[in-house]
Amino acid sequence: MTALRQLSEQLLTGVVEIDQAQPMAPRFIAEPVAAGSYFVSSFANVSAFDTDEGLVLVDTGSFMLAEPTRARLRTVTRRPVHTAVWTHGHVDHCFGVDLWERDSGRKVRVIAHEAVARRHERYKLTRAYNERINERQFQTTVAFPGEFRAIDETYTQSRDVTVGGRRFELHHALGETDDHTWVWVPDAGVACTGDLFIWASPNCGNPQKAQRFPREWAQALRAIAAKQPEVLLPGHGVPIWGRDNVQRALTETAQLLESLVDQVLKLMNEGARLDDVLAKVKAPADLMSRPYLAPIYDEPEFIVRNLWRLYGGWWDGNPARLKPPRDAALAVEVAQLAGGVEALAYRAREVANSGDLALASSLIELAVQADPLDRRAHQLRTQIYEERARAETSLMAKGVYTGAADESRRNS
User: What CATH number is associated with residue 379?
Assistant: First the structure.
């Protein structure tokens, strides 16, 4: 049994916990996974399929790790690359084409959904913003790319691509992105999901990113399941083998999203505010116990907020927050009522000691906004957000709270 297959089975049976095999951690392992099919476990995975005209790649690597990913695939196949299909335009999936062209000695044809180019134009407009996001989310200072490989051929809804006698079905889906493609390779029984499946609670509510589409995401997962794949090759994490295992992973991920969608829409239609929706919507506990649905990257609460934004807009239903005062003005008023910034900051510390880190965070934010130069308030803010980061499970939350702690550490 190969290393990736063994790890996959250990995760599915509970021998290894998902926290011990973080799907975002690059393993740089390349192995055959089906007939004429290869897989490289990286930060964002790369799949390769042999044909009479050369390899077809599904995704080509991240802007940071494309070269070691390429080198690892070369340990299992030396065939030149003919075509590359991008599952979407995120920068961990669509770089390294130039490396493959130099490696193969010929131009690589790149195929992607028509919306990928629009995404890359948006990235150019928001380059500095995305750098700050990545700094918080991944604790990295690596520069965000400003140039992107042009796509050679695009499609809209679906497309069949035949290379060297092998057929590849490309299907568009709204999901984590609006430009997503999942790929079905019928002669191998392999489905490449891109980030529609990542061995974690779906990245469908990322608080720092553009709109996600939970309902359509679930529909895409069910469409993939209808193909009856024998092997699932995810965008992150290890492959899954066996029709029953693949069906369970796909359908249960769909069920989680469908449950959240149904609950949110019911409450919205009843006139609930966002605050009420967040209090009442619960992710099914049996699904959240699955190793491939653990909230280690995104989490259901963020998906609920994303659903509200998708179906209801940005206003949360509280009339005071339609056109609220500036944060600093409210903070000064609350600090005066509390008896000063020091009293407010120490109350935040007391509340944190009692275990209510959410309330403590709100109080300490008011304290530092009332007086941004108060060093003691920043010291307490550092402590509270460090504690909150340790208490969280999702990378998204940990990143934001760690970033806040670092900010106040610099100001204390």
Answer: 1.25.40.880
Q: Are residues 209 and 114 located together in one domain of the fold?
A: yes
- Give the pairing of strands 109-113 and 81-85: parallel
Query: Domain limits at 202?
Result: 3-257
Q: What is the rounded distance in angstroms from the CA atom of residue 44 to the CA atom of residue 194? A: 9
For the record, the structure tokens of 3 come out as: 């290393």
Per-residue pLDDT of the chain (412 residues; tens, 9 = 90+): 799 999 999 999 999 999 999 999 999 999 999 999 999 999 999 999 999 999 999 999 999 999 999 999 999 999 999 999 999 999 999 999 999 999 999 999 999 999 999 999 999 999 999 999 999 888 888 899 999 999 999 999 999 999 999 999 999 999 999 999 999 999 999 999 999 999 999 999 999 999 999 999 999 999 999 999 999 999 999 999 999 999 999 999 999 999 999 999 999 999 999 999 999 999 999 999 999 999 999 999 999 999 999 999 999 999 999 999 999 999 999 999 999 999 999 999 999 999 999 999 999 999 999 999 999 999 999 999 999 999 999 999 999 999 999 999 999 8
Burial (CB < 10 A; 0-12, 13-18, 19+), residue 318, is exposed
| 277: in domain | no
> Which of 233, 257, 281 delimits the end of a domain?
257
What's the pTM?
Answer: 0.96
